[in-house]
Each structure stands twice: as structure tokens, then as C-alpha cells.
Specification:
Blueprint lengths: L2 H37 L3 E5 L7 E2 L1 H7 L7 H6 L12 H5 L3 E6 L5 E10 L5 E9 L1 H22 L5 E4 L5 E4 L1 H7 L3 H4 L11 H14 L1 E10 L5 E12 L5 E10 L1 H22 L5 E4 L5 E4 L1 H7 L3 H4 L11 H14 L1 E10 L5 E12 L5 E10 L11 H25 L7 E8 L4 E4 L1 H7 L10 H6 L6 H13 L4 E9 L6 E12 L5 E10 L1 H10 L13 E5 L4 E4 L1 H9 L14 H9 L5 E8 L2 E10 L4 E8 L1 H11 L2 H74 L2 H28 L7 E4 H15 L5 E6 L7 E4 L1 H18 L5 E10 L3 E8 L6 H5 L16 H11 L3 E7 L3 E9 L7
Parallel strand pairs: 27-29
Antiparallel strand pairs: 1-2, 1-5, 3-4, 4-5, 6-7, 6-10, 8-9, 9-10, 11-12, 11-15, 13-14, 14-15, 16-17, 16-20, 18-19, 19-20, 21-22, 21-25, 23-24, 24-25, 26-28, 29-30, 30-32, 31-32
Length: 913
């Protein structure tokens, strides 16, 4: 073999050897690469353009199995076509890597990375890697749910909540903070916390104190709304820390104390008002303690004794009479008997002048019925005593009136000084199947029981009911079960076991049923209405003043402009044929009196005037709380006539007495008429006070119930989301419906209690009616009915009105119409037209159940309703809104024939045709 051939053979052998070695190395590297792929905690696969899987690592095979030559969508999802939501093959079109998320057939979430890959033969493949991120997604969703839950907890609070950093900047706020400031969250976050208060420095000092001391309680500030409205609040705040324990900021909560401020101002005004009632009396009035010491006097007493108030108070009452022992015995009689009438005494002025008086006195008590002292009123009878025999019968009548008025004044003072407690609410549940009764702590308190002293069953519950009410309560509950009703309401009495005290409560109950309709659970509430009952009884005796005062009362402002005159004033002017001449009651030097009263140089003036032959004794005083000057006038014509008559000869005396007797007979007739009018006014005042109590109760109920209702709604949502139980879902839906009904009742009460004068703007009634129709139809979407509209005539007409009140007005009327419709064949007609150029008229008519004549008379009364549910405030609110807008509302209805409600509103305010 020649040299050249040998060389070629050696080179070939060497090349083969190198190729074998390189092949071995590549085989080892390929094995190591596949071993790495097999060990990865994620799946790696290769996909052909026709959806086959030529390679899949161990992770993929264990999760999804072997492909067996099938296409990916065939063996993974048992489909005949590729998946619509698959994004793997996008890389073949874009020629770029692609990142997306995929839910596998094992219902787990994968983070997918797709890359273009070239096979050894040059054919295109897709290499896909999937990382299991199921637990990470669950953690993210849990974190989102937690954040949403905590955010909802903050947002459902009706109190403004805010977080503040160390520099005093706002970090976060809730919806209540936006409402009280008038700025949205985006505008508030990052700004200075102190800028939203009337006293920024005080607000700044407050949050600095929190950082220094860790917390602060009941820090009083006043929030300033962007429109200028001020809201007094009490702030409670504390620092919060991060995970390392460092202070991260402040969490502050504000409690609106507007109602408390209003209540305090009302008490102050009431005190000033009653002080003025005492001071303007022309008769000496005095209060006496149990040991005979003077505790208070009026100006008339100071004038009668000639001694200043500060020297009279704390001295012995009997020292100022010509017969001290008789005076001492008199007030002792009052403490012994409770009252004394026409007790004759003579007051000695420090200058020696004597005044013959008749004292009428009674004890006054605190809220618990304990006697605090004596209230005494003295009537000056010095001039009258000379004609005492002739006028004896008339004097007894007049003294009886004085006694009645004095008693009314004392009762009024006692009632108005008695503090009203906020109403308490308790809840209970009765497991009908197991006869297991569960009470909240508030129910135990109302019934005067302790949990360990009470075996909670229905029978044991009946034993704490007042014996006279026990059958009625049992009949209400048992009757609702027997008759298939879902609820009942009742008022009754309970007897507290520990003290024997009788309390009044209002109960409301609703039943929950199983699938067969059998009641399995009764849920109810107990409302302690004892104070309300007591208040209602006391309000029946509240005297009306000054409108029904039999004597003229006139008010002027500090500039001398007339502002008020009572019925007695107008009757006098009508009698004189001068119905509009209020100024006839002004003394000639009234401007000088007004200046002295305004300057505080004098508190009260006494003056006698004569108006066309009628004499009046007037007391003129300034009432600072009301910023008015009030004139109290008393007709003393008869007294003047009597004085003149006594100067005449004895033979004319009998004639004068007969004339006076005739006059008093007429006065008795007039007094009887006035008493009848006063009774009607008492009923109006009772209703007004009741509505005021409802306003207070509404705010309290809204505050106390909204937070637990929101928590119940959230708990119901979470149970429904996790349980996935159809039977449970049905009951949870019923709970949510009841929560919505409760919120609607709360909103109705709040809207009614806060209803005030409208904020006028140009509004399109056509658009408001359309919006209300859409909202109402959505609420009653399951109800089949026909709606006829004729609104074209007002489509382009704007009127001056309050948009929110208009929405409430027509929303209420449409809700009433829907709820009154029959199950089938219901129809509602809505029409609108103009009346001339100044008014529009809107009519809403239904073919529902209608009302009888008796119900129609009460349709606008608060809390009157012909429906089983609701507050009965809807039409009352509508009536108030229409009144506020100078309009009119008319309801026509017949039982079984439907109802028609017509509203007439002015297009422009002040234009009344």
C-alpha cells in the first residue's frame, strides 16, 4: 500500500473516531438536557403546526397523560375542533414569543410561555412551557377579596373615616367623608387634613397629639363643606402600625353631633322661653324649698316686696308678710296636701306699702315623682277687696281659671324639664322545631331578666307578659302560624320580675319556612316604647301657648316691624273694626322703649293704654332667644269700669254689678269656645311632638341598624358564595330581600324626618318622570301590566323645583300605583298637560284595589297605610313636597275601582295665576 493511500486511511479512521466521540458527547448532553426537562417543576412540550405533541416532559405526562398520537385538543379536552380560546399558535403568525394564562383540563391555572422552535429537519415547531400558578392565583384572589371586604366595612360606615400620615396628609377616606366635605376621594387624598375644618390649628394640634400619645377621644371639631355648610363632630383616633411595629399613620373616626347640638340649643331656648313666661306675669310668682327658703322669684315679686332677687333668694318665705306664722302654715299645708287655693296673705313692701293677695300654690316634682318644692302664685286683690261681696261669684270663677292656668304652667315646666331616653331595640329567634328561644342582651334588659335566670322557651316567654295581655300576645303569634301569615306586629305590656315594673313594648315577627312551607324559625324584634307611651300621655296635657292665650299677644322685631299676633289680638281688632291696625297696641313712646330694651337698660315695661274705649294693661319685654319684642296685653276695661263705678253713689252700685255679671256671662260663653279650640290645638301639638320624636328615633335607628344590616348582607353574600346550596340560597335571598325592605324603611324615615325647604333649580319634569318609570319598572320587572303615557305636552318645559324631591315625589306615587295593581290585567295611566302659562298638571291613575271613603280621608296622615308592609309615610312625604313647591295634590279613589292622584305645580315660583 502506497504512502498516500495509508495516509488517507489513517485520516478516515481518525475522523470516524472523532465523529464517534462527538456523537457520544452529544448523546450524553442530549440525555442530560432531557433529564433536566424531566425534572422541571413545570411542563414543557413541543407542538407541531397540526396540533400533535411529539414531546412532553414528565410533569406534563403525569398531569395530562400520554397523547397516544392524538391531537392536543382531542386527548386533553375530547374535542373534535381546536379550542377557541387557545393562544399557543399565535407565535406561528407573529414569529414572536407569546405569554398568556391557560386553565388546564385539571381546572388548574398555568402561566404559559410559547416560543418558535426549529426541528432537526428544519420543520417549525412550538415549544411551550407552563408553570402551575393555581396557588398564587388563589392567594391573589383571596387578597383581593380581603381588600374588598375591608373596603366595604369602611364604606358602609355612616361616620366619616380617614387615615392620616405623619405629615398630616390624607391617605384614604370613605364615602361619608366625601359627603360631609363635598369633595371626592381623588381631591381629598394627598391634601392637608387640617384644611377641612373651621379651626385648622386645632385640627392640626389634634392629630399631633395622637402621634404623641397614641390615641385621642371625643376631640371636638367642625367640618367645613365646600358649599359652606358646617358639621360639628367628635373625633376618636389612634395610631396604626406596619408589620415591623413602626407607626404608619392615624386612623380617625368622626361622630356627627349636629342633633346633639340642636337638642342642647332647644333646651336653652326652652329655658329662656319659660323664664320669660314667668317674668311677664303681672302676678308675683315664687318657688319655695321644703325648709321654707325662697329658691326663685319673678319681677312682679321683686316689685311687690321692693327687694332685689339676690336678696330674696335663700331667705325665709314668711318674712315678707304681715302674718309670718300664717304664711309658714300656708306653705306647710301645700307640702301636706299637695296644693292650696285662695290662701289670703298680705305682702309688706320694704317702704311699708301693703298688698292684699290670694295665694294659689302646688308642689312640683322631679322625673321620679319626688317632691322638690312649692310653686306659688299670688293674685293682687287689694283694689278688688272693696267690691268683694258684690263680685264674689265672679271672683270664684276667675280664681278657678287662675288655679287652672297655674297648674298648667307647673305641669308644663315639669314635662319640659324631664329628659327623654333614646329608644332601645332587641332581637330574638325561636327555633320552632326544637322550641329553643334565643334573646339578644337588649331583650333581657328590656324584660328585666338575666340569662341565667330564664329558661329560654316560648312558654317561659309568655310568663313575663302582663297577665291581661298574655292571651292577646299568644293569639297574635299562634294565629299567624295557624292562618299561614308570614308576620305579625303587636304592642303589649311586660312585667319585670325583679322590680314588678310594667314596661310597654312593640314587637314585630317574621316566619321562615322550609321547602314544604312549614314554619321552622321565627325571627323578631322588641322595641321598648315605655318612654314614648309616657310622653304621649303627658303631651295630652300640654297647654297651647301663646296662640290660644285668651289675652292679646303681639310680636315685633328689633326694628319695630310686626311679626306675629295671636287669635285674641285679631278678635279685639275685628271687634273695633280695625282688622289690620296692629300698631293700635303700641304705646306712644314705644320707639324709646324699644331702644332701652335693645340696649339692655331695662328688661320689661308695664304700660296701660286705651284703644277706642277699651283699656289694656301691657307688659313689654325683649326675648333674646327669639330676637323679638313681645307685648302681653290684658283687658282691664272691666276693672276700670269697676273702679269708676265704686266712685259713684251707692244707688248706682247694684246696676253696675248687674251689668258686670252680664258681661262675665258672655265671657264664659267665649271661654267655653276658646277651650274647645284649645283642645283641637292640643291634638295638633301632640302630633307635632310625636313627629319630632320620630325624627330623633329615625336618626338613631338609621345609625344603630345600618351597620349591622351591612354586616348581615356581607355575611349572607359570603355564605351564598361558598355554600352553593340551593335551599340555603333561597333563604339567603329572602334575607337579602328583608334587608332591602329594612333599608327602604330606614331611608323613608330619614327622608321624612329630614325633609326641608327645596333647593330650587331648573328641572325637566318629563325627564324625571321617565327616569322614575324606568326605575319602578325595573323593581317590578316580574309584574305584567300595561302603561299608557301622554307626556308629550310637557316634554320641553322646565320648572323651578328641587330635583331630588321631585324624584322622591313621583317615585313614591309610581310605587303606590304598582303595589295596588291586581295580579293580572294591571294598567297605569300617566298624563301631563299645561294649565295656561303658569302651571302644569301631572296625573297618575291605576286600576288597582282603591280605597274606601274612610281611608281616603286619612290618606295624608303620617303612618296611615292600607298595605301590610311599609311605613305609611309615602303620601305624607308627597304632600309635604308639593306644599313646599306651592302646588296642590288631590287623590280620588273608590274601593275596587282604582286610584287617581293629580299634582299641580307652578312653572315659576311666585306665579299663582
Amino acid at each position: 500500500m502506497n504512502q498516500k493511500k495509508r495516509k488517507t486511511i489513517n485520516s478516515h479512521d481518525k475522523l470516524v473516531k472523532q465523529l464517534q466521540e462527538r456523537t457520544a458527547e452529544l448523546t450524553f448532553e442530549r440525555k442530560r438536557f432531557f433529564d433536566v426537562l424531566e425534572m422541571l417543576p413545570a411542563y414543557v412540550i413541543l407542538l407541531t403546526p397540526d396540533y400533535h405533541v411529539p414531546f412532553a416532559n414528565k410533569f406534563f405526562r403525569e398531569r395530562f397523560g400520554e397523547s397516544g398520537g392524538k391531537r392536543c385538543y382531542e386527548y386533553l379536552f375530547n374535542r373534535r375542533q381546536p379550542c377557541e380560546n387557545c393562544e399557543t399558535y399565535k407565535v406561528l403568525k407573529t414569529r414572536k414569543p407569546h405569554h398568556w394564562e391557560w386553565t388546564g383540563p385539571d381546572s388548574r391555572n398555568y402561566d404559559i410561555f410559547d416560543y418558535l422552535f426549529t426541528d432537526a429537519d428544519g420543520s417549525p415547531l412550538i415549544m411551550e412551557m407552563g408553570i402551575d400558578i393555581t396557588e398564587q392565583k388563589r392567594a391573589q384572589n383571596a387578597l383581593k377579596s380581603a381588600n374588598a371586604y375591608h373596603r366595604n366595612l369602611i364604606e358602609v360606615s355612616i361616620d366619616p373615616l380617614v387615615t392620616i400620615d405623619a405629615k398630616g396628609k390624607i391617605m384614604d377616606v370613605n364615602k361619608a367623608t366625601e359627603q360631609v366635605t363635598g369633595y371626592n376621594r381623588g381631591k381629598l387624598v394627598g391634601t392637608n387634613f387640617a384644611d377641612y375644618f373651621t379651626e385648622p390649628d386645632k385640627a392640626r394640634a389634634g392629630y399631633k397629639k395622637v402621634f404623641k400619645e397614641g390615641s385621642i377621644q371625643n376631640y371636638e371639631l367642625e367640618i367645613k363643606h365646600r358649599n359652606g355648610h358646617l358639621t360639628p363632630v367628635l373625633y376618636n383616633a389612634s395610631v396604626y402600625k406596619n408589620e415591623t411595629g413602626e407607626v404608619a399613620g392615624i386612623f380617625a373616626s368622626a361622630k356627627d353631633i349636629t342633633q346633639r347640638r340642636l337638642a342642647e340649643d332647644a333646651v336653652k331656648q326652652a329655658n329662656v322661653y319659660h323664664r320669660n313666661l314667668i317674668e311677664v306675669s303681672l302676678d308675683p310668682l315664687v318657688t319655695i324649698s321644703a325648709d321654707g327658703k325662697i329658691t326663685d322669684v319673678n319681677e312682679a315679686t321683686i316689685k311687690a316686696t321692693g327687694i332685689p332677687r339676690e336678696k330674696l333668694i335663700s331667705t325665709d318665705f314668711f318674712n315678707y308678710f304681715t302674718e309670718p306664722q300664717k304664711a309658714r302654715e300656708g306653705y306647710k299645708q301645700v307640702f301636706a296636701k299637695g296644693f292650696v287655693t285662695d290662701y289670703p296673705l298680705t305682702i309688706r313692701n320694704k317702704n311699708g306699702r301693703l298688698m292684699n293677695v290670694l295665694y294659689n300654690a302646688t308642689v312640683y316634682k322631679d322625673t321620679r315623682g319626688n317632691v322638690l318644692g312649692v310653686f306659688a302664685a299670688a293674685r293682687d286683690v287689694t283694689e278688688r277687696s272693696r267690691a268683694e261681696e258684690e263680685l264674689k261669684r265672679n271672683r270664684e270663677h276667675l280664681e278657678e281659671i287662675v288655679k287652672e292656668r297655674t297648674k298648667e304652667l307647673i305641669e308644663s315646666k315639669e314635662r319640659l324639664s324631664r329628659a327623654q331616653e333614646i329608644a332601645h331595640l332587641g332581637s330574638w329567634e325561636l327555633d320552632v322545631v326544637n322550641n329553643r328561644l334565643t334573646w339578644s342582651d337588649e331583650v333581657y334588659r328590656i324584660f328585666g331578666l338575666k340569662p341565667q335566670e330564664f329558661k329560654a322557651t316560648y312558654e317561659a316567654f309568655l310568663k313575663v307578659i302582663h297577665p291581661d295581655d298574655r292571651k292577646v300576645v299568644d293569639k297574635a303569634y299562634s294565629g299567624s302560624l295557624r292562618e299561614g301569615r308570614n308576620s305579625y306586629e303587636i304592642e303589649h305590656r311586660v312585667v319585670r320580675k325583679s322590680t314588678g315594673e310594667i314596661r310597654f313594648v312593640h314587637e314585630k315577627c317574621e316566619h321562615l319556612r322550609d321547602k314544604s312551607g312549614k314554619v321552622i324559625l321565627s325571627v323578631g324584634m322588641v322595641h321598648d316604647i315605655t318612654e314614648r307611651k309616657m310622653a304621649e300621655e303627658k303631651m295630652k296635657h300640654l297647654a297651647t301657648f301663646p296662640q290660644l292665650n285668651p289675652n292679646p299677644i303681639i310680636e315685633f322685631d328689633k326694628k319695630g316691624n310686626f311679626t306675629f299676633a295671636n287669635l285674641a289680638t285679631m278678635k279685639v281688632l275685628e271687634k273695633l273694626k280695625e282688622p289690620k291696625q296692629i300698631t293700635l297696641f303700641l304705646p306712644r313712646n314705644f320707639p324709646q322703649m324699644l331702644k332701652m330694651l335693645s340696649a339692655g337698660k331695662k328688661n320689661i315695661f308695664y304700660k296701660e293704654i286705651n284703644i277706642k274705649g277699651i283699656s289694656f294693661a301691657e307688659s313689654i319685654t325683649l326675648i333674646p332667644a327669639l330676637k323679638v319684642v313681645r307685648i302681653y296685653a290684658r283687658d282691664i276695661t272691666a276693672r276700670k269700669i269697676a273702679q269708676e263705678a265704686l266712685k259713684k253713689a251707692h244707688n248706682e252700685l247694684e246696676l253696675k254689678v248687674n251689668q258686670r255679671t252680664a258681661e262675665l256671662s258672655q265671657a264664659n260663653i267665649k271661654l267655653a269656645q276658646e277651650i274647645e279650640e284649645r283642645k283641637r290645638a292640643e291634638e295638633e301639638l301632640l302630633n307635632a311632638r310625636r313627629l319630632s320624636d320620630i325624627g330623633t328615633l329615625a336618626a338613631t335607628v338609621a345609625h344603630e341598624l345600618r351597620n349591622p344590616l351591612a354586616a348581615i348582607r356581607m355575611a349572607s353574600y359570603n355564605i351564598k358564595r361558598k355554600a352553593k346550596n340551593p335551599w340555603l340560597d333561597k333563604n339567603l335571598e329572602n334575607i337579602e330581600i328583608k334587608i332591602s325592605d329594612s333599608e327602604k324603611i330606614i331611608n323613608n324615615l330619614l327622608f321624612y324626618s329630614r325633609l326641608k325647604k327645596p333647593i330650587l333649580e331648573q328641572v325637566n319634569i318629563y325627564k324625571i318622570l321617565e327616569e322614575c318609570l324606568v326605575n319602578t319598572k325595573a323593581h317590578y320587572s316580574k309584574q305584567s301590566l300595561k302603561i299608557h303615557k301622554q307626556l308629550r305636552e310637557i316634554k320641553d318645559i322646565n320648572i323651578e323645583a328641587d330635583k331630588l324631591q321631585m324624584q322622591e315625589l313621583f317615585g313614591n306615587l309610581l310605587n303606590n300605583a304598582y303595589e295596588a295593581l291586581p295580579a293580572t290585567g294591571g294598567e297605569i295611566e300617566i298624563g301631563a298637560l299645561t294649565q295656561g302659562t303658569n302651571f302644569i298638571k301631572i296625573t297618575i291613575k291605576d286600576n288597582g284595589t282603591g280605597m274606601d271613603e274612610e281611608s281616603l280621608k286619612k290618606v295624608f296622615e303620617p303612618f296611615f297605610s292600607t298595605k301590610a308592609k311599609g311605613t305609611g309615610l309615602g303620601l305624607t312625604v308627597c304632600y309635604k313636597i308639593v306644599q313646599f313647591h306651592d302646588g296642590s295634590i288631590d287623590v280620588q279613589s273608590k274601593k275596587g275601582e282604582g286610584t287617581s292622584v293629580s299634582i299641580v305645580l307652578p312653572i315659576k315660583r311666585g306665579e299663582n295665576g
